[in-house]
Structures are given as C-alpha cells and as structure tokens.
Amino acid sequence: MKIRATDEQVQKMCALAAQASRPVGMGFLHFDSDTVFKPEDFRVLPEDRGVYLDYVQGRMVKLSLRRVAAGVWEAAAQISPDYESWIRTYPSYADLARAAGAEVLA
C-alpha cells in the first residue's frame, strides 16, 4: 500500500500506532499506561530508510513504513493482530494513515 504523507504525518502515524498498541509478554516490565506519545517522540530516518517501530516502551507496535519517493511511503501489505497490536484501534494502514491526515494512494 502506498501513502502520500509528510514526515510530520508519518511521525503522527507512529505516535498513534504506539499509543494504540499494548504490551506483550515481558513488555509489561517496560509498559507505562500513563505515557502519551507525541509525534515529535519519533524520528523519520533520511532517504529511503523510513521508520520501523518494533517494541516501544513494552508495547508491541511492529510499524514499518519505507519512503519510496519524495512524500510517498510504502506500508506492509499484510498485517496481523498477533504482531501489530495497534490494528485493534486502526484496522489497517489506510485507517492509520487517514487518522494522521495522510492520503492513501493504493
């Protein structure tokens, strides 16, 4: 799936996904339910590296976005509640992107 988004919108996607994610396994040791993530808590890597969130403060996020062109990002086609725990709030990358104000291309 392709998404048209600014770096700031991608950072917002990261914050939304992290906030919606829940701890799994030993992640409970690092989990703080009072934490409120902000877009500026996340960094977009330069050029085609994009962003990848695995565990964030014990939360199993598993968010992966790769920059494929200026302002265009590619997200994984397959997602699973067994890994991307944020999909309980945002059922797809398209839903997450729209919640961050980004445009879904395909």
What does this structure look like?
This protein is an alpha+beta fold and 106 residues long. It has one domain (2-104). It contains two helices and five strands. The protein has helices spanning 7-20, 93-99; strands spanning 2-4, 51-56, 59-69, 72-75, 103-104. It starts with a strand and ends with a strand. The model has no long low-confidence stretch (mean pLDDT 89).
Quick take:
The protein has 106 residues and is of the alpha+beta class.
Q: Notable features of this structure?
A:
alpha+beta; 5-stranded antiparallel β-sheet; 20% helix; single chain; 106 residues
Secondary-structure map:
Blueprint: E1 2-4, H1 7-20, E2 51-56, E3 59-69, E4 72-75, H2 93-99, E5 103-104
Antiparallel strand pairs: 1-4, 1-5, 2-3, 3-4
